[in-house]
Amino acid sequence: MRYKTVAIVLIAVFTGLLMIDYVQDMDSQSLPEQQVYSQTRSLMDTTVTIAVVNSNETSAIEIINRAFEKINYVDGVMNNYDNSSEISILNNEGEVTNADPELVNVISRCTYYSEKSSGAFDISIQPILDLWASKYAPGGTNQPPTSDEINETLKLVNYSAIMIEGNNVSMKNEMKITLGGVAKGYAVDAAIESMIDDGITSGFVNAGGDGRYIGTKADGSQWKVGLQNPDKSEDAVTIMNIQDVAVATSGNYERYFSDEAKVSHIADPRTGYPSSNLISSTVIAQTTMDADALATSVFILGEEDGLAMVEKLEGVECLIITNDKEIIMSSGFSSYENN
What we know:
The chain is α+β, with helices and mostly antiparallel strands. Helix content is about 35%, strand content about 25%. The chain has a domain at about 85-170: T-fold.
């Protein structure tokens, strides 16, 4: 999966199944003039579901199509694996002039995440990820990088060395960035804003578990989102009541640089080594990009520092699953739980 090189959402399939169940339930209970219309497509290497509460099927489909078009647009700008994308140009040439304002805004916002997390979130982590991936690729040593290799590569990891002047972005030679920790979240936000511009007041966009939910269901009740139990995929750790906020989860579960070695794909940009402080971290925030980036930050920071960061942020809550499977919540998380 391209878009979680720094973070991975755990609840993709489970949440999708939950939301489908609720969509069917809403269709049967909602008022005649209001129905839920939804579509699911494969985009950004994941499954994306967009749903709107509307009274007109033709209008709903048009609105959903425009929201999907927005996600495609974001993918085209921020896809590391597309050599023609602006982020690829930046990585290959060290600069991009007259960049798309959305790319500039996302990169700029990432500085905020880096500062709030004391460097635990850093989009310039890509050289470290490439180093670890190369060791477990065909022809690689199938062994971790040496400390000397890591320390040398860490010289290229420095978010403060990414320079923005107007719509021009540059960085020093051999630096590379990844928006894997935020691109999907940003795309969800962009799709939601497209829906709002089209007059939608209730609906959701869920991209592989990164979800943002606006308004309520047709019957006036809140959206319900389940967090998958890491031991039993059919079970939920908790069910959240969600309205006008976003949810994202970061963790390892089934993503490793090497299946045999079980080396985590989530690396700490401060040390260059994979992070294994937690099983997962789930964040509720106002935007999906915030939830996405902050979930990664909490996962890397660990229980104590991660919770301390969240408690300082207004409108942000988190649920942590520790390595010994203890569930720990921030002070306001329980207000979202389905009682």
